[in-house]
Amino acid sequence: MVTIGDVGPRDGLQNEPETLAPAVRAELVNRLAATGLPRIEAVSFVRDDRVPRMAGAEEVVAGIERRDGTEYAGLVLNLKGYERLRETSLDRVDLNLAATESFNRRNGNMSLDQALEQAQAILDASERPATVSISVAFGCPFEGRVDPGVVAALCEQLDTPEVVLADTIGVHLHNTRNTGYANALAALEAGAELLDASVGGLGGCPYAPRATGNIATEDLVYLLEGEGIETGVDLDALVRVSEWLEGVLGRELEGQVYRAGPWPTATTPDAVSRPISSSE
User: Fold this and answer.
1) Cα(26)–Cα(9) distance, integer angstroms
2) Catalytic pick among 205, 216, 221, 257
3) What are the pLDDT tens digits along the chain (280 aa)?
4) Residue 119 and residue 237: Cα distance in Å, rounded?
5) d(CA 204, CA 260)
6) H-type helices in 176-216, by residue range?
7) Is 205 a catalytic residue?
């Protein structure tokens, strides 16, 4: 069994052209939780002027109808963000640093050493489970390919049981270059136990040029179930969430399964072509 985390309410919506009201974002979290997803990244605690789509994080959390079996997380980039999260009912702290000097400065206005020091300070202070995501772990929009040895060294310096290798620009798991699903399977074969995805395939980083969407959560569940891998997620319910979200956003989403349907429908007899006999 693999743990699937949906980051749609945070990473998915932060790059949309319009800002959704906190009540609508909370409804998205609630609908996702009702599908049986074990983890949802609901909000990020960042400055409203830098990421306006994520304004009102506390209001979103207040609107969450908690469901047993779902862990609700929030993203923080610094100690101030962590202090805000600590005042909420969220279960998990997601924190982030980048594998390169340039991206840390663009995304968090600090050096790599400063970002590492701050991440560890948050880990030391947190009384809740924490996950550290290392962004641009495979490639950076400003520095190009990233040395795997650099990423491995960062992982070794972090005192946390869970590290996520984040493919910010779509070199691997983000679906920018349509390799996300194949690499999700490759990650599992390599020993990964957690895969992040986004409902409808929404997503993109405001600070990473040309970084488009995530892999769609429903498409990932469809793929894994076809491979005999248990997810614990109701695929039909997940498809309905994407259908609802399409109406909210007023556009077709990037995911494929919600448009095609999770399973092929039976063909009516009238639509079946008459087989051609050997004599014909």
Assistant:
1) 8
2) 205
3) 899 999 999 999 998 999 999 999 999 999 999 999 999 999 999 999 989 999 999 999 999 999 999 999 999 989 999 999 999 999 999 999 999 999 999 888 899 999 999 999 999 999 999 999 999 999 999 999 999 999 999 999 999 999 999 988 877 767 777 888 999 999 999 999 999 999 999 986 655 666 667 899 999 999 999 999 999 999 999 999 999 999 999 999 999 999 998 876 554 444 444 344 444 4
4) 36
5) 23
6) 180-189
7) yes
